[in-house]
Design goal:
The chain has about 625 residues and is α/β, with parallel strands linked by helices. Among the domains are: about 250 residues, Aminohydrolase, N-terminal nucleophile (Ntn) domain (Glutamine Phosphoribosylpyrophosphate, subunit 1, domain 1, 4-Layer Sandwich); about 190 residues, Rossmann fold (3-Layer(aba) Sandwich), CATH 3.40.50. It has 18 helices and 25 strands. It has an 8-stranded antiparallel beta sheet, covered by helices on one side. Strands 5-6-7-8-12-13-14 form a 7-stranded antiparallel beta sheet. The protein has a 5-stranded parallel beta sheet with strand order 17-16-18-19-20, sandwiched between helices. A hairpin with a 3-residue loop joins strand 9 and strand 10. The radius of gyration is 25 Å and the shape is globular. The protein starts with a strand and ends in an 18-residue tail after the last helix. It binds 5-amino-5-deoxy-1-O-phosphono-D-mannitol. 5-amino-5-deoxy-1-O-phosphono-D-mannitol binds next to helix 9.
Length: about 625
Amino acid sequence: MCGIVGYVGLPEKSGEHQALDVLVEGLRRLEYRGYDSAGVATVSGGVVQVRKKSGKLGNLLAEIEAAPVGPAQVGIGHTRWATHGGPTDVNAHPHVGDSGRLAVIHNGIIENFAQLRQRLLAEGFEFASETDTEVAAKLIGRFFAGEAAGDLTAAMRLAVNELEGAFTLLAVHADAPDRVVAARRNSPLVVGLGEGENFLGSDVSGFIDFTREAVELEQDQIVTITSSEVEIINFDGTPAQGRRFYVDWDASAAEKGGFPTFMEKEIHEQPKAVEDTLLGRTDAEGRLVLDELRIDPEELKATTKIIVLACGTAAYAGLVAKYAIEHWTRIPVEVELAHEFRYRDPIIDETTLVVSISQSGETMDTLMAVRYAKEQGARTLSICNTNGSTIPRESDAVLYLHAGPEIAVASTKAFLAMIAASYLLGLYLGQLRGQLFSGQIADILADLHSVPGKIQQILDDAEQIKALARQMADTPSVLFLGRHVGYPVALEGALKLKELAYIHAEGFAAGELKHGPIALIEEGQPVFVVVPSPHGRYSLHSKVVSNIQEVRARGARTITVAEEGDEAVQDYSETVFHVPGTQPLLMPLLTTVPLQIFACALASEKGYDVDQPRNLAKSVTVE
Ligand code: M6R
């Protein structure tokens, strides 16, 4: 949840990067991971200097301006999403140990911190904060001054072997002034390689302004960086190697690019996100080629059941995937919230394909569920946007989205890219199993390739949606209805409104309405309805039109998202947002977009920060 950055440059490299500038830039980019408080520690002249402040990064910058730190080439920085202890100045990281000569930052939760704290208290240590992190700081400091004899890497190793839970820890010490030492277990950490300088970050955006050469670490490893060296060991002290990779986007991709917010930029990047996700995945004959899947096609062919695991928006993408994959492959697909999955004794064997979907690749609930599925013998495939992240690394296969960095905390472009990638997977499995003819696949792919242009049309024509959002700024509650693939879209529309505008919003399967939720309808209640294509099967369209009439008859304000040319909804809708048509299964790539624009515009109208909504963090790296 928290954002972590570390830096070591060449000593006295005056005029080049100063640690503080690098740290602040990194924190600015990582702030989406948590923004309850921020802090830095720098090392120079035999002293560790700590500055920290509750609230957003701006508060820390004001603090530093009021009490500047001197020039330094070594430092660590942190932006926090509070777990243990409220978001106060005292609980902000870094925390100190060894009489203030050591500073530590942390992401994750140390589960045995209470026992360790008791032990350290009994030894005479004093604690300033309520955090679990301070326990780690005292422990590392104790080892540094004792058993590790001034070796910061050894002190970190001794300490982490006493910790339980999930953590990325970074430490600097005044008596080891040329290095930052870091450790990771179940929590993200990436190394950035520079010339005469090296970096650490929760993800590559922490150092993307300075280098695109990166190293991914394995589970339970410690890395020591100096200006010229990167040394990795396992928690048992044995030497280890990381995997080098090159970041395929640059700093400009993580800028607002002329948009007032990242959220608006990312909504507008959706045509490209979908296009790039589809790119290069067919051969000259138009056959789907997913070489990167790394699972033997024969094993994939033998799949008897697919379980999709994800959380939040990614789980809604998984629900869309279910409709498409079952239809195209005839393989049963279950979709489950990752945090529920492993606590219910699920039925899995080696013919089960577990597909995890995650933008960050670091969501702890999803990661733990994937590990559990692997232990049970399932094949695991990750649909993910973040290269170098844990879930794809630990999965048997990966299908990367190419949506580019998603900075706004609430997910938009990754959602559409996840859906597009799920379609590719479904078509690929259908192709492998001979369930789909090549002509059918070609038709669907052709329609998919026409989607980005259609999303662009919706974006170009968004004024009507924004006007409605401005007009509805005071509404206390909004309901969303959908059927078939429109159901997950309704869920996502409601989630976006909750996250961005803090409005009570619920998504329902429209068919469920009469089974209870219709009791919520009263005069003036706004109800968004995602209307299926009038050209689809099963008369779903007419059923949804009936649902619209039912709520309207009870006083609801009906706002519909319907395919261009769908005249039937006109008479029952206060407002209709028309979207271009495509195959019914592909419609979520289009019908979602007006709902995202609506939520973003309404939140902006209320003056809320759409990039960093309250209480949220971009990647949830604690269970
Ligand atoms: O990084 P992930 O896709 O695994 O994240 C999953 C959810 O935490 C995420 O989608 C969350 O629901 C967002 N706040 C949605 O906007």
